[in-house]
Amino acid sequence: MNAISKTPLSLEFFPPKTQEGEAKLRLARRQLYALQPDFCSVTYGAGGSTQAGTFQTVREILAEGQDAASHFSCIGATRASVREQLSELRSMGVRRIVALRGDLPSGYGEQGEFHYASDLVAFIRAEAGEHFRIEVAAYPEVHPQAPSPQADLKALAIKAQMGASSAITQYFYNPDAYFRFVDEAQAMGVLLPIIPGVLPIINAEQLIRFSDSCGAEIPRWIRQRLQAFGDDSESIRAFGLDVVTDLCERLLAEGAPALHFYTMNQSTATLEICRRLGLGRRGAQVQPLNMSPSRLGAASPRWR
User: With bands split at pLDDT 50, 70 and 90, how would you rate the model's confidence at 2?
Assistant: First the structure.
């Protein structure tokens, strides 16, 4: 078995809002479990607005025999409310938390007793010791609200000092940004694993809109190719698979410790990328998907 096939990977889901969404997510999870993920994480809405759905989805994943990590945002929370929620997570059997500052819902006036994710990390360690493995967020292309790249790196360093176990990055499509970020973090003494977050390209319009709002850069050549395809969804999917597979290959070849897939509650693209990479731990077999051949002709541009 080669080094890539042994690569740890994790999967991220969001709590569905409808019964139809719940059924689709259960099906996607069953298909993705063929990858033998190290854990599956579940996102948490602004101000904890999806807490019930997050915890319910976490319960289902645990019942399905998988390790589950609950996202946990602290903005707007009190120490008492966080203590209560930590107790609930412990009673559920959760051993991993993705600790985030989060965003306040629109019109929410009070910020609560926590101002930064590092405050939450420190509180969890004080309350629960080493019971939870704590993942935190990292931003290779700089958090959109950070005053400077150096301030953003310092924020990660503080989270590490407070007891974070590892970091998961915002998605990106420029691997040089990731490797530069890791080098600069290590130069500041941040030695925790920094795991690249990977977002498969499924819907061009949605990707461009979301990236523009969250500060994730889409390299010019990728953006122009996506826009040139117009509404040709088949070519967009084929191009996206090539681009993201190439990205992952370089990340792993140059030392990324793991991959974290933002699945968008879908299985097809993540499964196909992992099949191309030879991912699938402990002998799990990931079958080729029934997808139309690429209509791109020449291979997509390689990363420089």
Answer: low
Domain 4-277 has CATH 3.30.360.10: no
pTM of the model: 0.89
**Dist. CA 2–CA 7, nearest whole Å:** 9
- The 10s digit of each residue's pLDDT in 89-126 is 999 999 999 999 987 665 555 568 999 999 999 999 99
| Full DSSP string of 7-50 | --EEEEE---SSHHHHHHHHHHHHHHGGG--SEEEE---GGGTT
Between the CA of residue 279 and those of 20, 90, 174, 290, what are the distances in Å? 30, 31, 21, 18
For 119-153, b/e burial (b = at least 16 CB within 10 A) is bbbbbbbeebeeebbbbbbbbbbbbeeeeebeebb
Average pLDDT in the chain: 89
CA distance 132 to 258: 19
DSSP characters for 72-140?
EE-TT--HHHHHHHHHHHHHHT--EEEEE---PPTT----TT--SHHHHHHHHHHHHTTSSEEEEEE-T
For the question of residue 135 being annotated catalytic, the response is no
pLDDT per residue as tens digits for the range 181-192? 999 999 999 999
d(C-alpha 200, C-alpha 260), whole Å:
11
Residue type at position 210: F
Distance (Å, whole) CA 28 – CA 86: 28
State the Cα–Cα distance between residues 113 and 237, nearest whole angstrom. Answer: 44
Instruction: Give me the residue spans of the domains in the chain.
Output: 4-277
Cα→Cα distances 216→128, 139, 182, 219, 227, Å: 34, 9, 17, 10, 17
Please give the structure tokens belonging to residue 242: 């090539």
Closest CA to 7 of 213, 211, 283, 257: 257
Q: Which residue, 214, 164, 216, 170, is CA-closest to 192? A: 164
